[in-house]
Design brief:
Structural class: alpha/beta
Radius of gyration: 14 Å
Number of domains: 1
Enzyme class: oxidoreductase
Helix content: 10-25%
Organism: Octactis speculum
Distance between the termini: 33 Å
Catalytic activity: N(6)-[(R)-lipoyl]-L-lysyl-[protein] + 3-methyl-2-oxobutanoate + H(+) = N(6)-[(R)-S(8)-2-methylpropanoyldihydrolipoyl]-L-lysyl-[protein] + CO2
Protein name: 2-oxoisovalerate dehydrogenase subunit alpha
Largest sheet: 3 strands, parallel
Strand content: 15-25%
Number of helices: 1
GO molecular function: branched-chain 2-oxo acid dehydrogenase activity
Shape: globular
Length: 89
């Protein structure tokens, strides 16, 4: 809907390889979320979520792109799961 309405928004996904308590490889096929964004009419950027400077630059670029093209942009930050998602894990 954001792409259809040309909403300049940045979606940020912290991908730690888990969908709550199940590894993402058991939840869906593919190499992540960023590769799905073009199918929804969005630009996408994948970045090393453990690199503060890379995340800053990617987010800044995504913001500029969203404003310039009046379109949503998906940023997927690949990182590690440091702790539990909830008390049920």
């Amino acid at each position: 809907m954001a792409a259809t309405l040309q909403v300049p928004i940045v979606w940020f996904c912290r991908n730690n390889g888990f969908a709550i308590s199940t590894q993402t490889k058991d939840q869906y096929r593919g190499d992540g979320i960023a590769s799905r964004a073009p199918g929804y009419g969005m630009h996408s950027i994948r970045v090393d979520g453990n690199d503060l400077f890379a995340v800053y630059e990617a987010t800044q670029y995504a913001r500029d792109l969203a404003i310039r093209d009046c379109t949503p942009v998906m940023v997927e930050a690949m990182t590690y799961r440091i702790g539990h998602h909830s008390t049920s894990d």
